[in-house]
């Protein structure tokens, strides 16, 4: 059976996180791709900046004004793998 879409629980099971965490990460990834800043994402999600920052670090989401592990890359080291991986 070929299925184009996936349920949130399927995405979360593959990523190894909860369905709610997967939803938040996909939403944040979309905001980051639209060029939103960390503060704008926090306002849209109605959460504090630290919550958004923690999710950005766990899923390696780069916002316009915040790149997790930017100093690591600048030092010539590789970025770590994301704690939870949503897509290939």
Short description, anyone?
The chain is an all-alpha fold.
How would the blueprint of this fold be written?
Layout: H1 8-15, H2 19-33, H3 38-45, H4 49-59, H5 70-74
Helix pairs in contact: 1-2, 2-4, 3-4
Can you describe what's shown?
The protein has 5 helices and no strands. The chain is mostly helical and 88 residues long. The protein has one domain. It is globular and about 45 Å long. The mean pLDDT is 87.
Major β-sheet annotation? none
By DSSP (H or I, 4+ residues per run), the number of helices equals 5
Shape annotation: globular
Radius of gyration of CA atoms, rounded to a whole number: 14 Å
Task: Quote the distance from N terminus to C terminus.
Answer: 21 Å
**Number of domains in the coordinates?**
1
Helices and strands, in order, run as: HHHHH
Assign a percent range to the helix content: 40-55%
Strand residues, percent = under 5%
> Whole-number average pLDDT?
87
| Low-pLDDT runs | none
Structural class: mainly alpha
Counting DSSP E segments of at least 2 residues, the number of strands comes to: 0
Keywords for this structure?
single chain; 88 residues; mainly alpha; 5 helices; 53% helix
